[in-house]
Amino acid sequence: MSRAAVRLVDVAEQAGVSLATASRVLNSSRPYGVRADLRARVLEAAEQLGYEPNHHARALAGSASMTIGLVVHDVRDAYFALVAGAVVSAAEEHGLFVTIVNTYRDPEQETKYLRLLRAQRPRAIIVAGSGFRGEAAEPILAELKQFEASGGVVVALGTQHAGHSIDVGNHDGARRLAHSLCDLGHREFAVVTGSAAMNTVADRVEGFRQGLSERGVELGESAVHYGEPTRETGRQAAERFAAARAAGAQVPTCVFGTFDLIAAGLVGGLTQAGIVVPDQVSVAGFGDVPPAADMTPALTTVRLPLEDIGRRAVELALLTEGDRQLVTVEPEVLLRQSTAAPRER
Amino acid sequence: MSRAAVRLVDVAEQAGVSLATASRVLNSSRPYGVRADLRARVLEAAEQLGYEPNHHARALAGSASMTIGLVVHDVRDAYFALVAGAVVSAAEEHGLFVTIVNTYRDPEQETKYLRLLRAQRPRAIIVAGSGFRGEAAEPILAELKQFEASGGVVVALGTQHAGHSIDVGNHDGARRLAHSLCDLGHREFAVVTGSAAMNTVADRVEGFRQGLSERGVELGESAVHYGEPTRETGRQAAERFAAARAAGAQVPTCVFGTFDLIAAGLVGGLTQAGIVVPDQVSVAGFGDVPPAADMTPALTTVRLPLEDIGRRAVELALLTEGDRQLVTVEPEVLLRQSTAAPRER
DNA sequence: CTGAAAGCGCTTACAG
DNA sequence: CTGAAAGCGCTTACAG
Lengths: 345, 345
Fold this sequence. Notes:
Chains A, B: One of its GO terms (molecular function) is transcription cis-regulatory region binding. Chain A is of the alpha/beta class. Helix content of chain A is 43%, strand content 14%. Chain A is built from 12 helices and 12 strands. In chain A, the strands form 3 sheets. A 6-stranded parallel sheet of chain A has the order 2-1-3-4-5-11, with helices on both faces. In chain A, strands 7-6-8-9 form a 4-stranded parallel sheet. Chain A binds a DNA duplex through residues 7-9, 17-21, 23-24, 27, 32-35, 38, 53-63.
């Protein structure tokens, strides 16, 4: 119960061996390093003293860092919470720790925290944010490159910043969803989505458009409504649809909210306006965030295999050499009660 | 673009000053430490080289660690995601990083990760789990004490393991909820909750019981149903109530699910069994987890001021001396559509 | 197989 | 105000 933490010297002393020997035992490097009796004495001493090696010293002395940096927009967001959970679980299996930073969808914050993260000298940085396009992405990319240049590994989810990347299935998932909806009989669609500057948004919209196109349906640019990835955006869009409908305008039979939250807002807004989902309009989301299955009606959506993604991300993070990898995963379309065949008119 | 990261010597060299001087400038300690021109040169060199100090070296050399350990049951859980988000935000404001570990509601895991966390030498450990009672808690407590003995600070949420603690309001929130429900006219209650071994459960049940008692209503032990904090537990309980009701048994007019998820299951199960909420039975939850407000009917629940809790936790984590603190926060009862005055019989 | 010693990148008394 | 030097707790060639 001394004021300071137990050090390796303390262990070595108690075991009656040199520092080097104690270190070798505790690092379980090669199997035949240390004589059995010495090994036993060291282990016992460590156990007895409750010794826990100082990671800082370890990292400084050259052994690989035990931490992984995880960059998300906000852990409070269900999607990122699931990603974070998967990464933390996978990391724990490898004895690694995960340090989380929130960037709040702000490129400047992202750059700043990436830089601060470098100071921690994590073994790898996993960028789970949706990334940005164009100019905003440049300083971020620069930070990532510098991290790589100093020996760190970068894993990007859903985008190809730098380093390894995992295609989480935004494009492919939206494409498959489009197929399913067309197969249900829909031909007139609208899309309500987040900011065009986000990769996630662009990927989902493009994937959806491609999927429709493969079924012979064109999605015009005017059918895509950009906003924030929030319930409110969905609700407002719903009100506009309802108004247009009341005014006798031609209205889509199916609306795709590219985030479950948007879709939830759409369902709420339409219902409130007296439009029955899915009888009059079908609504689909993306993400399969927990409440999606429990909404009324249960939300048709796309599930990304987040657990799988987390595991793969950590595996890539552990790679010490070799070429950049590009991993793909299989998204899954979940047809539930918020979509149905369109009514004849 | 050398292979290794930029070091302080590199900066000092480029600025033409000694290591010590460079260090002083970059640590912005006392304002009048270094001559202005030297200071400027150091700053410029650092900027130019993209220097970011090595935290490991810093920590080893004696400056306070920049990381906080956060122990949760599972970040995927909405409650913990919100807590984690709040802690990460607050930490970022102080330039600190948060390392998250998941314990999966398992005392052994918790002990293990607490121990591994010690190796990271974080400045503080915030234990956000609901904690355990009795024997299971002992090794956890021992780890925490050892961490404190070696100079770390411990902050416990919702329980008083060791170190500072924040009473997150489980007891008080449930107590206030009981008042509100009694004021609505209810006199017959049932409680559906998680495992009795969890502090959260015990606190909420006890608080609820006390609140009722203060309104002259007694809650018998047989009216409390223990299970898991899941939707399924709620659903099953609902089925039992429905069966009892169909059999003509006396049934409570109001059921309190001590977790929103349980309450959601209760509402779902009751509705499915043809019992209308709140007309026939009122249901209340606890937590105000995001979907709560958007359920149909919207769920009456208790909101804990998680943002506030996160901020206070980080403040306590930063305390370097002084007595243990016990912080209290103000939970809020949110009366929504899932509760109403009981129907006369 | 084992130990003495150098070195990782910083900070901080201690001299000047 | 500034610099040379010791030391933080480890790991790892290098000798033995």
